Each structure stands twice: as C-alpha cells, then as structure tokens.
Amino acid sequence: MSLTGKHILSSDQFERQDLERLFQLADLLVPVARGEQVTRVLEGAVMASLFFEASTRTRLSCETAFLRLGGGVTSTTGTEVTSIAKGESLADTSRVVTGYVDLVVMRHPEVSSIHEFAAATNVPVINAGNGAGEHPTQALLDMFALHREFDRLGKPMDGRRIALVGDLKHGRTVHSLVKLLSRYQDMTIVCVAPEELGMPEYLLELAAERGHRVEVTDQPSLGLKDADLVYTTRLQTERFKDRPLPYSDDFRIDSALVNRVCREDAVIMHPLPRDSRPGSNDLSADLNRDPRLAVFRQTDAGIPTRMALFASVLGVADEIAGSLRPARWYRPEYTGPDDAPFYK
Amino acid sequence: MSLTGKHILSSDQFERQDLERLFQLADLLVPVARGEQVTRVLEGAVMASLFFEASTRTRLSCETAFLRLGGGVTSTTGTEVTSIAKGESLADTSRVVTGYVDLVVMRHPEVSSIHEFAAATNVPVINAGNGAGEHPTQALLDMFALHREFDRLGKPMDGRRIALVGDLKHGRTVHSLVKLLSRYQDMTIVCVAPEELGMPEYLLELAAERGHRVEVTDQPSLGLKDADLVYTTRLQTERFKDRPLPYSDDFRIDSALVNRVCREDAVIMHPLPRDSRPGSNDLSADLNRDPRLAVFRQTDAGIPTRMALFASVLGVADEIAGSLRPARWYRPEYTGPDDAPFYK
Amino acid sequence: MSLTGKHILSSDQFERQDLERLFQLADLLVPVARGEQVTRVLEGAVMASLFFEASTRTRLSCETAFLRLGGGVTSTTGTEVTSIAKGESLADTSRVVTGYVDLVVMRHPEVSSIHEFAAATNVPVINAGNGAGEHPTQALLDMFALHREFDRLGKPMDGRRIALVGDLKHGRTVHSLVKLLSRYQDMTIVCVAPEELGMPEYLLELAAERGHRVEVTDQPSLGLKDADLVYTTRLQTERFKDRPLPYSDDFRIDSALVNRVCREDAVIMHPLPRDSRPGSNDLSADLNRDPRLAVFRQTDAGIPTRMALFASVLGVADEIAGSLRPARWYRPEYTGPDDAPFYK
Questions:
Q1: pLDDT (tens digit, 9 = 90+) per residue, B120-176?
Q2: Which of A24, A104, B253, C242 has the fewest CB atoms lying closer than 10 Å?
Q3: How confident is the model at residue B277 (pLDDT cuts 50, 70, 90)?
C-alpha cells in the first residue's frame, strides 16, 4: 500500500511489506539524521506541529525530521489554541490550519480528537499520540531500531523471542509493538508483568491468531531468559497509592539482573523517558555502558524513521536517494561518550 | 505608493491601487501557498514573530507565509518577553529585536504598543492585531478572498451590494472592511445588526463621503437579500450577561435562512473562528457543503495575501514571477472533503 | 586552540588568540547579520534551542544566528520539558536530544546543569546562561562590540582604561568581561560600585596577576573620567528592601553626568535590558542620541558573534568567506532612527 497522501493514525495501518519499505528508506536516511549527509527534497514545504499536550522530545524529533528533509516548521504547544477557546470545532481548526501547510503532526490528550481532526482534511495528518490511544511513530521507530539491531547481529526478524516487561496493561507503546511484531512470523512473545498489569486479552489473542507463541510470567528473572529483545517499560507506583504494591522491586532492570539472566546478544530497549530517581522500578542507568542497552540507538532511530514516514506520506520517497549530498559541518564520531563502539 | 520598507500598521494605508497591485502578486503566489510551487526569494532572511497575545492561527499563517517565501522564523508567544518584565521600554525591545531580523510581525493586546514599537525602528513592522485597534492583514486577506470570489463569478468589485452582519460595533474586522471596500466605487453597504451593536457613525460617514450607499437594518432576512457578499461575525452573548438579549436568535446564519433569502451567487464570509457550540448566534456549520460558503477559501487566502505583503514590504515583489519552480511533493486535490468543486 | 567540536561553557575557554580569530570571522559576518549578504554553510544542520529558563532576546538572537547560517532550529522554552517531569535524568535528556541535532544552545537556572548536560554528549553544547554562573556568548559579544568600537576610533585594544559601573558583585556579565579583558595587555580596570557591591576579590587578583592596573571607587563622577569604555549595569534596589540604599542615586548614568565627566570618544555599553521606569538607578534613555552610547551596536553584535561561534564550533569557519552572496531584500540604512551616522 502506498503511504502517499495517507493520514497516519494507527500502527494497524502497517503490514509487513509497508514496514520493510519504510525501513529501507529509513536506512538510507540514517546519515542525514546523523548530520553526515543533506537532502532538500522538501525545500518549500511546511509542516504544522500541533501539540495540544506537551511532549518535548516527540515534538523536537518530529520537527527535526522535517527540517532535515529541507522543509520548514511552524509550531504550537499547549492548550493555547485560541480559536478553540472561542468555541471553534476541531473540524474547523483542522480545515483552517491544513489550508496553510503540507503536513500536520498532532498530539492531543483525547483519543477521539485525532480522528475528528483528520476527517476534516485531505492534507496528511500524523498522530503523535492521542491520549490512551496510539503513538504510531513511536511504534515504527521501535521496530526500525529493532530491525537495525537484529541486522547488526545477523539475526532475521522472524522467529525471535521477545520479552515485554513492566506495565503491559496501560502502556500504549507495548500494545502497538505487539501489533507490529505480529506482522512477522514465528515469534515468541513473553509478557512479563505483575498479574494485574498484564497484557490485554485482545492483544494476546491477536498474536496467537497470527501464529505466534505467547507466554506469560510475573518473574523478570524467568521472562528475560533467552530473549532476543527485552523491551522494558516503567512500572508506575503511583497507580497503587493506597495499597501494597502488587509486585516486588525486581522489576528494576539493572546490570545484576541482566548479567545473570540475559543472552550475550540480547537487545534491551525502553521507550524512554526512564525514571532515574532512587527507588524507581525502571531500567537502571548502571547498564549505560553495556552494549546490549539499545535505548539511545532507539531514540536516535526516531529521526530517520520519521523522515522516512514524512517523505513517504508526501510522495517523495523515490527522490531521496538521488538528492543526498555530503554535509560539511562537524559531527562527533559518537554522540554519547558511552555509546557502543559498533555504533558510530 | 511603494510598500517597500514601510511599517504596515493600519488598513488606512491602502488605496485601491495598492490593493490591486497586492492582489496581482497574491494571485501569482496562490500555487506557492498551496504547496504546488516553490519560491526562495527570501532565503537567508529572518522574521521575528512576536505575539504578546496568543493568536494561534494568525501566528501560524504569518509564519507559514514567511517560510513559503524561503525565509526563516524565530518566534515568541505570550507575555514571556523577559526583558520587559525587568522594566525595559518597548522602544528598547524594538530596537534590540529589530537589530536581529529583517521583518517583525507583532500582536499586542494594547492599541498603542504597535505604534510605540514601530516608531523605534526602521525595520518593517507588521501589525497582526493591536487590541481594539486594527488587524490589517486580516482586512487584506478578506479583500483578496473577495477579489478571488468576484473574479470567479465574473463580477467586478465596483457596484456590489455588501451585507455586514452581526456585532458591527465592536468588530475591528468589519471596521477595516468598510475602510477598504469604500476604496472601490458605487458600493451598497448594508449594516445588519441589533440597534445597539450598530456600525460606528464615523464609518457610515466615511462610506457616504466616498460616494457609497449605506443601508441599516436589524433584520437579517431583509439585510441579506440581494447581497453579493454576506460578511457575518459572531454576536457575543457574553456582552449582555445581566439583561435580556437585544436581538432574537435569527442572527444565527444557517442554511434555512440562506436558502430562503440569499442570491444563488452570493458569497458568504466570516473572519473565523465561528462558535459551533449549541445555541451560539453565529454562522452555522450546516452550510459547510454550500458552495456559497467561502470561509475556508477565505482563510486559505491568508497565506498568499501575507506572502504578497511581506514580499512587497521587503522589496522582492518583482522577483517572485521569475523565482517560481514546481513543488514535487504530494498535495491533495482538495484540502477539505467539503471544498467546492470549483475550488481546487 | 580550535573550537571545532568543543562545548562552550565558560569565557575562561577563550585566550586572546581565540578571541581575535573569532572577531575576524564575526567581522566577515556583519553583513550577513544585517541582512545584506547570505550564507548557507549550515544548510541541513539543525540546532536545538533549550531554554529551561525564559530569556527572550538571547533565544531570538541565538536562533536568528543559526538561521542566518542556513540551518534550521527546533526550540523549547520553560520548564515544560516533559520527560524531566517524569524523573528523567539530565544526562538522559542530553543524550536523547543531542542524538537528534548538530548543536544545542541551552539556558538553565541552575549552575551545574549545563555541565551535567554537556558531560553526557559529544555534540557541541553552548551555554546561554547557567543561573549565577556564566553567559559566555554575552561576554563574547561584548568584547566583539568593543573591538568594533575601538577599531572605529583607531584605538588598539591594549592599554585602554575601562570603567565597570554598577552592581559588580552579582553581575555575571562584568565578571566574564574582566576575564576576557585581562587577556589583553596593559589595561586599567576601574571598578565603580557601592562598597558592598564591589567586584569579587578573586577577579581583582586575576586582573592584577595578568599585569593590569586595578582602581576602585564608589563615585561615578570620578570613575568615569578618562575611561575609554564605560560599561554600566543596573543597580538592583530590590536587593535592599528592608534597609536604606547603600548608595546615592548618582549611579543613574545620564547625559548630564556623561557630558560632565566622560571623554569625547568614550564608549558607553550596557548588557541590557536597562530599567527605564522612573527612579531606576540605571542607564538613562536621554543618552539615546549621544553617539557614545553603543548599547544597540552592542546588541547588534550578538548575531555576528554567535554566528562566528556556531560556525567555528561546527567547523565551517573556513567556508564562510567563499559562501557569501548578496541579499536582495530591503534593509533600512539605519536600524534605529537614533542610530549614529557612522553606524550603518
């Protein structure tokens, strides 16, 4: 399916072939994302970045991706959209703003808003998070990062063992991931969560229907074993204010645990941000120098993924290859001092 | 009068000849505004977008217009201008910021501020709304939209019947419109408003002095009849909190009324936003598929109008025609699903 | 020392030779800063502008400088960085955001934050103010403006008499200035301040160690005499809420004082903003038409200085000269109506 002219509202829109085409383009765009090459295919195009709810890194990442394609960005954050305060319908806002620009990236705290907004315009709208709903560009960048990791390790995407860890009930990230991972073949999906924070039934069924194995455990030390990918998320203690936590603190994923149970070639991911405050049940910073920790390679993947998506939606994917030229400014060999040597 | 190097503070600055020259340029820029062509005449120029009062769509529209000319934008919103909080005069702020950039677009809640700001610099300053004062770029885009509509309908601008509807006392939009419409010849201006929200006397006199007919009524069903343009604005019920409304609810302009009394080739405009909440005395969304409803063609007109204005003020108007090249990215045939077939 | 790839955190990093190389480049960039020439050396590069504390003019100046080099900017202001609110460490924020972009400009109210942020990335980070710490780009622009003034007056930098006036205890601007001025030779630094707001001892010692004369007085009428540069700052009365002011109001630097005691060829600078409210102990606006007042030439110097710094840090300094082309848009002969005739 061609993505040209499409709204991108849900990760359900992507079948395996779409992902593969997108990743091929994103691979080509990695040097642009790193500031080593330049493309100007969207010179003259303008994107509106509408964040009705703040999300600094998603906004900066989307805006940077569009700028790196040569386009311009006009941006608004917060609930400050003044016309809406005066009783304007979201349909009117949509038609007005999309009459200005070529692409809209929008985040909104309410699930239905992105659909209402997109229905009122033919200009492509990208969902950058709609409350408890979806965040498809995050799901795509997770998959692209995974594709890069498995590629580096010489492993095919098919047939992998994937451990999803943490609050699997509320995390829209892991829900989207199940949808996209299940587009491949022969996966084993291991859900590692306290019982009452388990993966929703409909997603377990979806994975099973598509022919994958599903395992469930509340013990990280069991669940992480043999996994090719360990995808961790934060356990939000604030959900259990008035009663004892329904899990021990071994949901803190740290080097002691990883060294004890994980494969040598495991890949450890996390959607970030992670909570680095003392006592948080989250991914520990003591793994920062462990080359298995892929969290920053993962966030880095956001730029080429979003560039590839924007270029595809705007129908210029085929012009990328011929448009590349070398960048001439300084770029450090490694972005982070702890970056793994294999990751330039 | 050449606009090059001028501050644009009031719609009084524009005589008929200025409007016509501007609209000729704006016509040329419509394909750029629509993302079908690219110009880079302002590549390297920088605009500061200073919104001391929020106005999302005006800001996005001005920023997009400058970006589509090839320029860059640096932007600030709200009262967050930190130097002013420390006791800086607006004259100092002006001289400092205009030492950075090539053009300033400014909105401020106080009427006098734009004048104080403009007096302290020779860098062109564009008024994007000064409280109860003026909003000349809105007035220009209204006129450009009207020029496009009448052109499409094969009607000359001169000799038209124009109905202005709603709160004509407080609306700076309709005030500016009277000033600009009266630059043409032989108009009939019909003021349709509750008696105590009527058009200010000095504007009625201005229109009469310039040789136009003026009619006044508080009945929309009478006032809209035979009008070539119906320009509606919102009636703000909040102005009458503690006493009965001085008008019946037939100031709601909807398809029933329009179909009953308006011409087949009428043009219906509104500065937007319109209040779509139940019970609002405003332009109804049930007209959205009526091709006479020009409100989105009108907001779309904001980009080419502002581009033409910025290019004129920065003295590059004559370079536009030679600078155009085709855009290569996707653009939908129609922006809105309800857009009229004649309006690509 | 080459600046390529370096973090710019402190004015201590700059020796005389670094300053001279930077000013040579900045001189070349003045026409670009003024909108008379265009360079696109950073076309394709992206800067993140992270202002955890608002500072409108510093942000606009840095963003404009990067845009005028041909780059793109993505920007965030205030404490809205949402990931940090969720417990993310500043190190994580740094690694994530610097994986997107080529350069970061950051302002933060806490002194240590910029160091923590910079330590987590190899992508160059520019300190745009870290609380009571430093603001090196302000110090550099002050020095560049001074270089331009002395150049115009035919005076060498060495051997000058420099009066620093106002609150010398708390002003990070004057602290940085002492560090940079003392990189030159044979200066006389006159500290003009109420006794309890005097220059910190360690800076007096630094200047003396480097072979300069230091004089101290609490009388502006004495201290300003014979000075080549009078660098004034605001006296913040709010520091003395509950007790009598420790100084008379003759710290108001106005035309009466300047005409009485200053040299004909003195240069008067101020970091701005100045407090123009009645009764403020600050630089008076009645000097605005005195050509000795260099405060706006000084703020104008911010753009070429920051352009030169960014270009140097990104390793494209040597490409500037060959990249320049004339700008074609309108630029007023003088930015401010009161600008001195010698300053186009």
A1: 999 999 999 999 899 999 999 999 999 999 999 999 999 999 999 999 998 889 999
A2: C242
A3: confident
pLDDT category at C248 given cuts 50, 70, 90 is: low
* Chain C residues 17-36 within an 8 A CB cutoff of chain B: 32-33, 35
Confidence of residue C158 (pLDDT cuts 50, 70, 90): very high
Q: What pLDDT sits at residue B307?
A: 98
CB neighbours of residue B137 within 10 Å: 25
- Mean of the pLDDT values across residues B280-294? 93
Q: Which residues pair with B125 in a beta bridge?
A: B104
Min Cα separation A111/chain B (Å): 20
Shortest distance between the Cα of C330 and any Cα of chain B, in A, equals: 5
Spell out which residues of chain C touch residue B316, defining contact as CB-CB under 8 Å. Answer: 328-330
Compute the average pLDDT of residues A295-300: 98
Facing residue for A274 by CB, picked from C92, C101, C316:
C92
Q: Show residues of chain B in contact with A309, CB under 8 Å.
A: none
Q: pLDDT at position A134, please?
A: 92
pLDDT at res. A157: 97
Pairing of β B188-192 and β B267-269: unpaired
Which of C100, C106, C307, C320 should be substituted to probe chain A, the one whose Cβ sees the most A Cβ atoms within 10 Å?
C100
Q: Given an 8 Å threshold on Cβ–Cβ distance, is A88 in contact with B275?
A: yes
Q: What's the rounded Cα separation, in Å, for the pair C290 and C258?
A: 10
Summarize the confidence of residues A242-263 as an average pLDDT. Answer: 84
Residues, chain B: 344
Neighbours of chain B (3+ CB pairs under 8 A): A, C
Cβ–Cβ contact A241 with C under 8 A: no
Whole-angstrom distance, CA of residue A104 vs CA of residue A7: 9
Nearest CA in chain B to C60: B74
For chain C, list the domains and their CATH numbers: 11-134+302-326 (3.40.50.1370), 137-298 (3.40.50.1370)
Three-class HEC string of chain A: CCCCCCCECCHHHCCHHHHHHHHHHHHHHHHHHCCCEECCCCCCCEEEEEECCCCHHHHHHHHHHHHHCCCEEEEEECCCCHHHHCCCCHHHHHHHHHCCCCEEEEEECCCCHHHHHHHCCCCCEEEEEECCCCCHHHHHHHHHHHHHHHHHCCCCCCCCEEEEECCCCCCHHHHHHHHHHCCCCCCEEEEECCHHHCCCHHHHHHHHHCCCEEEEECCHHHHCCCCCEEEECCCCHHHHCCCCCCCCHHHCECHHHHHHHCCCCCEEECCCCCCCCCCCCCECHHHCCCCCECHHHHHHCHHHHHHHHHHHHCCCHHHHHHHCEECCCCCCCCCCCCCCCCCC
Q: How far apart are CA A112 and CA A125, in angstroms?
A: 14
Q: Are C296 and C287 in contact (CB under 8 A)?
A: no
How high is the pLDDT of residue A81? 60
* Interface contact A340, partner C, CB < 8 A: no
- Mean pLDDT (whole number) for A312-330: 98
Cβ(A139)–Cβ(A19) under 8 Å?
no
ipTM over 0.90: yes
Q: Name the residue of chain B whose CA is nearest to C238's CA.
A: B86
Condensed to tens digits (0 to 9), the pLDDT of residues A118-141 reads 999 999 999 999 998 999 999 999
Interface check C277 vs B, CB under 8 A: yes
- How confident is the model at residue B79, as a pLDDT? 61
The pTM for the full model equals: 0.97
CA distance B299 to B271: 8
A201-218 residue pLDDT tens: 999 999 999 999 999 999
Best mutation target among B30, B43, B56 (most A Cβ atoms within 10 Å) is B56
Task: Say yes or no for a CB contact (<8 Å) between C88 and A40.
Answer: no
